[in-house]
Design brief:
This protein is mainly β. It is 12% helix and 40% strand. It has a nine-stranded mixed β-sheet with strand order 1-5-19-7-16-20-21-23-22. Strands 2, 4, 6, 12, 14, 15, 17 and 18 form an eight-stranded mixed β-sheet that branches. Strands 8-9-10-11 form a four-stranded antiparallel β-sheet, with no helix packed on it. The chain is globular, with a radius of gyration of 19 Å. The mean pLDDT is 97.
Amino acid sequence: MVHNVSNQHVYFMDKENTPVLTAESGDTLVYHTLDCFGGQITSEQQTVDELDWSILNPACGPVYINGAAPGDVLKVSIQSIEVDDHGTMACIPNEGLFAERMDHSLVRILPVKDGTVTFNDQISFPANPMIGVIGVAPAGEKIPTGTPGHHGGNMDNNKITAGTVLYLPVFQPGALLAMGDLHARMGDGEICDTGVEIAGTVTVQVEVIKGFTLSNPVLETKDTLYAVASEKTLAEAVKTAACDMAEIVMRKTGLALDQTNMLMSAVGNTEICQLVDPLITSRFGMPRTILGGLLD
């Protein structure tokens, strides 16, 4: 069955959120999302000082998935991401990688047409629509949608695109899947605190996986299996993602930790998702030619 998910946006991932609707394992969900600014920016003459910061990073949903229980895994197959005809970027004073050098606000509205983002008269680049915020209700207290964690959330992982599969640990009955914060394009790190922020529509299929557990999200692309982790520092995020991947490698190959360590060092990659959220997000990738899929 196909369900349209709209008319409700939340600002916390929270077990107390009222579900928009209830879906079954195997159903298709169509999420209609706002951009990370909640549509507040309509002109390049605006400044970020004019924004209502309490309604940033709206996430559409959540959806209650029948049968999803704590300890399960929610498989989210991303079928398509359709974005609007323009996106927004902003430099925010005292934020991002150049925080100490950014003392003013700058807002840009960028056309997005035929799979291309126009930056200015001389520069354009291919769009790569992705989901910045996607997650479930966390185990404990509510978590702002702008913060990543074990539950997913604001991972800003530019590999979460159409054709990929995201596996999320389930912490609450029904999982309560919500998403938003699309980008027409975003580089690894998201160093100025924004990508090309954009509204759009995401179509996913959900499936409850029993008898399988995860501590953190795992992403499966056509070629690569990624363990994704968010921690207070980059070093901690890198280590957690690598440790999670080591467990996957040992389970799937039967190798001991010492040989797993060598294999990951030879063919694995540590990559940065984002450096600018309340927690830092990293991913560790291994080729599927060696590992196959997560559930294979």
